[in-house]
Design a protein that fits this description.
Elements lengths: L6 E11 L4 E4 L6 E4 L7 H7 L7 E6 L13 E5 L14 E6 L2 E10 L3 E5 L9 E12 L2 H6 L12
Antiparallel strand pairs: 1-2, 1-3, 1-9, 4-9, 5-8, 6-7, 7-8
C-alpha cells in the first residue's frame, strides 16, 4: 500500500542538522504514527512521504520554510512562572513547556526570574535546515473514527487528545 490521503503511516526517524549533528532519534522508543493528508507532521516531510510504502527507507533535507518555519526576531515573551509546566531549575537555552490558550507549547528559556520567565516562542528547530532519515514501518487505511478526528490513533484504538 502506497501512502496517500487517509492512510495511517507509522515510521521511525533520525533527525540531524545541516552540520550533521544528530538531534533526535525515534529508534530509542516507539515509532510515530500520523494520518496522512491532515497536516499532522511538518509539511515538507508529509510531502516526501507520499507514495512510499512499508519497508521503504529514505532521506529528505528540508529548508526551514518546509519544516518548522523561519525564526521570528521579536518572539521573546515574558510568562508567569505558574504557566510553566516544566519543574525544577530553569536555565537559559533549556526547552520547556508552557500552557497557552491553544494547549501546551515548547519554548526556549532566555532568562529565568523568580516569578516570571522570558522565553523565545520560536520552535526550538525553527530557522534550521533539517535532514530526516525515515524508515516506514507500516501503512494502513485509517478507521472511520480516525478520519472523523483528523488524526491517527495508536494500537488498539487508544489515543490522547
Ligand atoms: Zn481521536
Amino acid at each position: 500500500m502506497n501512502i496517500a490521503n487517509d492512510h495511517v503511516v507509522t515510521f521511525h526517524y533520525r533527525l540531524r542538522d545541516a552540520d550533521g549533528n544528530a538531534l533526535e532519534d525515534s529508534h530509542d522508543g516507539d515509532p510515530l504514527s500520523y494520518l496522512h493528508g491532515h497536516g499532522g507532521i511538518i509539511p515538507g516531510l508529509e510531502a516526501a512521504m507520499r507514495g512510499r510504502a512499508a519497508g521503504d527507507s529514505f532521506e529528505v533535507t528540508l529548508a526551514p520554510a518546509e519544516a518548522y518555519g523561519e525564526r521570528q526576531a521579536d518572539a521573546v515573551q515574558r510568562v508567569q512562572r505558574k504557566y510553566v509546566r516544566t519543574r525544577g531549575k530553569l536555565t537559559p537555552g533549556q526547552v520547556i513547556e508552557v500552557g497557552t490558550d491553544r494547549g501546551p507549547r515548547q519554548v526556549v528559556v532566555v532568562k529565568a526570574g523568580k516569578f516570571v520567565v522570558d522565553v523565545d516562542t520560536n520552535h526550538p528547530l525553527a530557522g534550521r535546515t533539517l535532514t530526516f532519515a525515515i524508515d516506514i514501518v507500516e501503512v494502513r487505511e485509517a478507521t472511520a473514527e480516525e478520519k472523523a478526528h483528523g488524526h491517527a490513533h495508536g494500537p488498539g484504538g487508544h489515543h490522547h487528545h
